[in-house]
Design a protein that fits this description.
Blueprint (H helix, E strand, L loop, with lengths): L7 H22 L2 H12 L5 H4 L2 H18 L2 E8 L5 H8 L4 E9 L5 H7 L7 E5 L7 H4 L3 E4 L8 H5 L7 E7 L14 H8 L3 E9 L4 E8 L1
Helix pairs in contact: 1-2
Length: 224
């Protein structure tokens, strides 16, 4: 039975229990990330926060965070996360004491997600910003982020064409997958080698694969 067909009271009860649970865990752990999740549940009942923090989503972001630290260290002045959705990766980077980040900007086409992302990352103050924008219309040359993250390259028709918009030497973290059966995935790749051929980065500091139950996620870290 879906949320659309279940009685409203069942949905409300689930959210109330989740809200109480996350607030309790936040109080125990003193975690601003968990506190942010509780705040989202309380203020944005329409947000798909359970999907954003499901085990597959979290595993892929932990993988990205760990490999980024190993390959590039933890100090960044400005990070752009494209297709940032609810700002989960930003929250996870801020939550990791290995990282010293001046500003993370979460950028997404969907105008409804920015307010949720700001709520999730409320504890991090002016170090976090959420914008509604098209990644093809961004002024990369003027802003000069020292890291550009795009974990949804399977949604980009011309990955290399987009990368050509970035100034030479920009560091990137890219993910794609081989989930060809998903209709919204218009440019999947069958292997990490195929992904590397597609991106044609000037320098690759990490290339790897993360198998999951239904598909394999691929990641490249390097510079354009």
């Amino acid at each position: 039975m879906t949320d659309a067909t279940r009685p409203a009271t069942a949905i409300d009860d689930w959210r109330e229990h989740a809200f109480d649970l996350t607030r309790g865990i936040a109080a125990y752990t003193k975690s601003p990330l968990i506190s942010g999740i509780a705040r989202v549940i309380g203020r944005h009942p329409e947000a798909e926060i359970a999907t954003a923090f499901n085990h597959k989503q979290v595993a892929s972001k932990v993988w990205a965070r760990d490999r980024l630290f190993e390959s590039s260290g933890g100090r960044f002045s400005r990070i752009w996360v494209l297709g940032g959705w609810y700002g989960v990766l930003a929250a996870m980077l801020f939550d990791d004491t290995r990282f010293d980040v001046g500003l993370i900007e979460s950028i997404d086409l969907d105008p409804d997600v920015a307010i949720v992302a700001r709520t999730l990352n409320h504890a991090f103050g002016e170090r976090f910003a959420a914008m509604t924008a098209d990644m093809y219309a961004l002024d990369y040359e003027h802003a000069r982020p020292d890291l550009v993250v795009n974990t949804s390259c399977e949604h980009i028709a011309d990955v290399r064409g987009w990368l050509d918009l970035l100034p030479k030497g920009t560091q990137v973290l890219l993910q794609s997958n081989d989930y060809f059966s998903e209709p919204t995935h218009i440019n999947c790749v069958p292997s990490i080698d195929a992904f590397a051929d597609l991106a044609r980065l000037a320098k690759v500091s990490f290339a790897g694969a993360l198998p999951t139950k239904k598909y394999t996620r691929f990641m490249l870290i390097g510079t354009v």
